[in-house]
């Protein structure tokens, strides 16, 4: 079974998906980490990107810390707009999820990567809340993150290849003001038995 969690930057996808996978006993696929690694690659289409034991490997090099910078996020958004990169990444993600139970998060899991997922959730939060969360994570100011986030949201929504949008059958869940445990509980209640 696949649980697809999509949404914009800062909505809590990674944190919630990781916690939901743990709560459900599923495996977790961090597609954002894959795109961030691709953004650091000399050739993002042919890059060897692996997720192993909580680490992100790019062509055999551990880039786990490198991908969590604001610059890596920006580069990921740029390379993710390239159709040939998206095609290569979608193929890798589908291969990873071909067997077993997964919680996968990203921008197009429910619409492109796993359109047949049993549960699709589109996480949202107010722009200010999303910027506050990301600023706390990065140790920077909210205003800068909000400005960058606004540009990234627009680029993600308007790109030709797999634009950010909720799948028609996704459950929209606004995480503003909710704890991680509350969001995970709501997702858990939605998982079909």
Automatic annotation (TrEMBL):
One of its GO terms (biological process) is nucleobase-containing small molecule interconversion. Residues 3-190 form the Cytidylate kinase domain. It is found in: Cytoplasm. Keywords: ATP-binding, Cytoplasm, Kinase, Nucleotide-binding, Transferase. Transmembrane segments: none annotated. GO terms for molecular function: ATP binding; dCMP kinase activity. ATP binds at residues 7-15. InterPro entries: Cytidylate_kin (IPR003136), Cytidylate_kinase_dom (IPR011994), P-loop_NTPase (IPR027417). Gene3D superfamilies: P-loop containing nucleotide triphosphate hydrolases. It catalyses: dCMP + ATP = dCDP + ADP; CMP + ATP = CDP + ADP. Its EC number is 2.7.4.25. GO terms for cellular component: cytosol. NCBIfam families: cmk (TIGR00017). Belongs to the cytidylate kinase family. Type 1 subfamily. This is Cytidylate kinase. It comes from Capillimicrobium parvum.
């Amino acid at each position: 079974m696949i649980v697809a969690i999509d949404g914009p930057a800062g909505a809590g996808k990674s944190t919630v998906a990781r916690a939901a996978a743990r709560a459900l006993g599923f495996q977790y696929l961090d597609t954002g980490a894959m795109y961030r690694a691709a953004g650091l690659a000399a050739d993002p289409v042919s890059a060897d990107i692996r997720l192993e034991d909580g680490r992100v490997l790019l062509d055999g090099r551990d880039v786990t810390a490198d991908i969590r910078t604001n610059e890596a996020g920006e580069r990921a958004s740029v390379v993710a707009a390239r159709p040939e990169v998206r095609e290569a990444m979608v193929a890798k993600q589908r291969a990873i999820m071909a067997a077993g139970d997964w919680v996968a998060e990203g921008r197009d899991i429910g619409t492109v990567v796993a359109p047949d997922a049993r549960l699709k959730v589109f996480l949202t939060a107010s722009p200010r809340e999303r910027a506050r969360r990301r600023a706390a994570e990065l140790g920077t100011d909210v205003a800068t993150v909000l400005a960058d986030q606004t540009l990234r949201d627009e680029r993600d929504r308007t790109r030709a290849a797999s634009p950010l949008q909720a799948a028609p059958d996704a459950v929209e869940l606004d995480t503003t003001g909710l704890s991680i445990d509350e969001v995970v509980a709501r997702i858990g209640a939605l998982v079909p038995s």
